Amino acid sequence: MNYSYENLIVEIENKIAIVTLNRPQALNALNKNLLEDLSIFFDEAKSDETIRVIILTGAGEKSFVAGADIKEFANFDGKQGEELAAKAQENVFNKIENFTKPVIAAVNGFALGGGLELAMASHFRIASSNARLGLPEVTLGLIPGYGGTQRLPKLIGKGRAMQAIMTAEMFTAQRAFEIGLVNEIVEQSSLIFRAKEIATKITQNSSTAIKYAIAAINSYDKENGYDVEIKSFGHLFDETDFKEGTAAFIEKRKPNFK
Q1: What architecture does CATH give domain 8-203?
Q2: What residues are labeled active site?
Q3: Are 138 and 131 in contact (CB under 8 A)?
Q4: Which residues pair with 112 in a beta bridge?
Q5: Using 50, 70 and 90 to split pLDDT, how confident is the model at 218?
């Protein structure tokens, strides 16, 4: 499949897609076109069997995504603002969170506003040591609109999320690691190498099981979370990956998942 976009660079290698948000002149700020490119990419990648894991990162050394492109919505009214948030959440942020293949955010530099929301929608995050993360929307008279008020408390707790959003403070990479906002910190020169290392481990496991694991983990705070896990667990007994995995275990060999 040919992945060609105005604002994204897509490189596929060993079943890992490295997706670079490419607006370095604007610190990779999320504008309408970039969000559209992301939406189309995830639609196309869903059925692409050459992709098992996706790594999201930003072009350049300064920024993952410095936020939304404020110039695009500075003159919006309430209805337009609501439509902006609803469309972006449906087409990009929720789509990433519920994507059936793992999405890793490799956060290099600033991840602010919509940038942090994009990282939080990903399944987990690793950061370079120079990363700075925060939700500064209240300094514009707004609140996070791309899922930030919902995802941040789940990751770092309600009290910390309240403080972070109300003060608009930025977290250093170290602080983000301490509070569970990012999983690991590495030097910027090693960021993509480490992300690919993690992604490679994932590609060696059952993609079918991982798909169901994503859905089950995403249900952890819902009433039916345990039911989702139980049904998913049962369903996987009928899949060929289970038969291959158990046969490999019994035969003391590595499984060959299709």
Answers
A1: Alpha-Beta Complex (3.90)
A2: 117, 137
A3: no
A4: 134
A5: very high
